[in-house]
Amino acid sequence: MKFLQSLVQQFASKPIDWEELEESLIRADLGVPMTTRIIKTLQEREAWSVLGIGDVIKAVREEIARILPADSTPIRSANGKPTLILIVGVNGTGKTTSTAKLAHHLQVRAIDLNRPPQVMLAAADTFRAAAIEQLAIWAERLGVEMIRSQYGTDPAALCYEAYQAATKREIDFLLCDTAGRQHTKTNLMAELQKVKRTLAKLDPAAPHETLLVVDASTGGNALTQAREFHSALTLTGLIATKLDGSGKGGIVVAIQEELGLSTRFVGTGETIDDFAPFNRGTYIDNLL
Prior knowledge:
By secondary structure, the protein is of the alpha/beta class. It has helices at 3-11, 18-27, 32-43, 53-67, 95-109, 131-142, 155-168, 186-200, 220-233, 251-259, 280-287; strands at residues 83-88, 119-124, 145-147, 173-178, 209-215, 237-241, 263-267, 275-277.
């Protein structure tokens, strides 16, 4: 059920119950700080005892708009060298598919080049069975080159090789799809840090973007993941998947507020075109 439908059912025909409202806001994954602020805003208004559902929706919209940036920051080319984008996340968030969708988006919508951009993929998930083959299918569909190796290969070495190849071929965007890993596994997070250190030997600024793929329907787990990945890697943004009407996409607000990490792109379906830059207005409309 969408957030707005839930609120209307609860409060359309009766006065606002603050405890029920607090529970509804937290269930929508807006987070405790945002929930507290919304309720405080409403309670500070005159005649709060006769507030209606319209007042609640307006307050929620205004507070979310204050937190989220108006425009999504686009990914730009790195001035004569490949822009390396590291895609990370836990297992099962749609990371490999999101990598392919982002590659397609860059092919058709890169805004700072006066020619069709050149995109390359790197299959740095050398652990999950069939991960390399899955990305290879996408590379063929997109008509882009993919750098791959054998399963069990060191992902840092593969990303290093891919960046060298991308530089030699004058590629504009190199997307490295890394293995899904639980944020609680210290050794696996250290492996990603090794990838960053290795790439820095070729370019101190690489990776130029480090994007965390989160499943927006997982609620507080997504916030926990963002905390740990950001602490280990210094993320530059999120790709939020499953923002397709579940009514639980409020977690991106909580992540933005706590960590200052913007949702850069959203995935809303299974096809290659079900992917777009994050739009604050569209997001709020869909949530409410």
